[in-house]
Each structure stands twice: as C-alpha cells, then as structure tokens.
Amino acid sequence: MMNRRNALLAMSATALGGLRAFGSKLSPLALQAAGDTATQSKNAARQRLDDGLRKDFARLASREYSEEGVPVFLACDDLVAKQACLKQHPVQLTPFNAALSSEFRQNAEAYLRIKPDAGPLDVGKVIELMTDRDFLNPAADTQPVSTAPTFSQNAENLADLFATRPVIRAVNFHNTSRAQAALYERQIAQYSQHFSPVNQDELETYLVTGEWHKPKPGLIVSVFEGYRNSYDVLLPILEKYGFVGWFWMITGFLNTPVPDQRNYAEHHDIDMLTHEYPDGRYALTWDELRQIDKKHVIASHTRSHTLLSQLDPATQRSEVIGSQQDFVKELGHPVRAFVSLTGPAYGENAAIDRLIDEAGYDIVFSNFLIQRIKAKHVGT
User: What is the pTM of this model?
Assistant: First the structure.
C-alpha cells in the first residue's frame, strides 16, 4: 500500500494543482509563472507526440493493404466463462496491457489533434501504427515502455474494480506512538461498534465467494513496518476490542542490531516521528513477533522496504524470497500474504510475480486491491 511519504508526494505531483493548494502563501505573479511553465512543458510534450505521429503515418502511407501483412492488436474476451468466473478467477493482466492502454489513449488524442474530422474507423489507423512499432521491437512484449496513468484512467480502473469485485474495508497503522494511545483506542472502539475482525481464512473465503458470513462487515487492521510500539501500544488495544491485526513486517528492520535501528529506519523510509525508547530499540523482536503470531496475521512487507522495480534481479530475489526465508527461520512457517513498498499489484511486473510465486505467497495486497493468486497451502 502506498507509503505515507509517497502518498504526500503523489498528492502534490501536479504542478499547477499543487501550487494552488498553497496559493495563500504565493504571489499571483508566482502562481502565473508556475502555471505558464507547466503549460509550456505540456504543450511541448504534445508537440513532440504529434510530430512523431505525423512522421510515422507518412511512413505507412505507401502500404499496400491488399498485398502486405498488416499487423493488428486483438483484445480477447471470453464471454462464456467471464460471468461465471469473474469473482473466483479474475484475469491476471500483464504490464503490457497497461502500457498498451496508456499508449493508445495518448496516440488517439494526438490523432484527433492532427485530424479533427477523424471518423470511428480511423481508430484502426492508430492501432495499426502502434502494432507496427511493436512488431519492430519484439522485446516490448515483456519489457513495455509504460507511462503513468492519468487521474481519470486510475479512477476509471478503480470504478470498474469496485463494480465487479468484492470490496472489503481496511485501516492502516504505522508508527503508533504511546503519546497517541488514547486516539487509537477511540478509533478502535468506534470501529468495533460497526465492523468485525478478519482473519486469513475468512478473507480467502470472501475473495472466492464474495460472501461475508458475519453480522457486521469485515475490517482488516493493517500494522506496517515492525515498530516496537505496535506491540507495546496498539496490540493491547486491538485485543481489548477483539480485532485481528495484520502485521506487515520488514524483516530486515527486525534483524538490525539495536544500535543501528534508527539509522536503518532513516535510510529505508521507515518514518520515526517520535523517539520514545531511551534504550534505542525501535523494532519488534522476533520473540515479540512470535507472540503476535499466536492470535494475529503476520505478513511480508519485503526484507528492506525498497522499491522492487528499481532493483537488480538478485536484490529483488532477496527482498521477496529472502523475506519469506526470514519468517520460516524465525516463526517456523511461511507467511501467506505479501505487499511491497507503494504496493504494485500482481500482474504489473512479470519478474517480481515469478518471485512471489516461488516464495509461496497466496495473497498479494496493493494500494487498492487484494488478489488471491493461489489456494491456501496445506499446513499453513
């Protein structure tokens, strides 16, 4: 799930929108200059796209359609199985799907700028051009060049997920300082009036059937990173009100010697707003985690809380599989659920998906999605 720092960065990512939020502190001239710069940059990017599109279409203008092989993309849609299996077996798309969709939207918009009178069949010209590029670069199928989705694209995708998949509530905790204990208790007490705890088997049943068999809706209480105060402060509150905590552990944090834990936190995006432990221990011990494991859910948040997509293959393996190995060594069993920093979904990176499979995780959490990727292993 999206880490707090990245979430704040994402909220301020658009230049003009971010500046407007601070409009009271900036002069009108400064706002206008920033807006002009953002507009100029956007216009320049559009011009580059439009110019490239004109050149590509000029290159294909001499194609003899009756005598040449014309490439095309075809979307596949199983109408027989889709309705029956949509919830139980959602189709796992690849990064190529996202890249293709994003590229198509951008090129279609550019085509309309070049040819405002384009008709519906002209969509085929855009597809033809994109496929032609792809056929000239076969590696694009496994390593696509993708662009970040827009707000509208993200919203459209989420709306579709909310309409077609079971939905469950969750609340995310990180550094639960003792100074805020009263606030946490008020929150959990209020939640207990309206929601039920969720364990792993209950979640799996819900993912498979879409049916919830408790009188109150389920609430997943996620506790991230492995802070010591999650054991000292939050755990007693959860148990007082009957909630199951989902403890997403950074195993490297737990393995770090006490004198180095604050430094480790600072260099691995583990926010430590309060320094409340004079002895310098800020991470859970494995003994404490073994106690938590008796009643709650332990899950992987990788080994060192790093963006997996930016790592070399060996380090990716250490993060995904090495984390599971840490759990097996210290808890005596593998954990079933996995989430990485910023929470990319299963299906967004084929190499990481293979590591998740090899590590034996059953469920993958991401920012707005839970995916059951295999049935529960016997004995876990």
Answer: 0.66
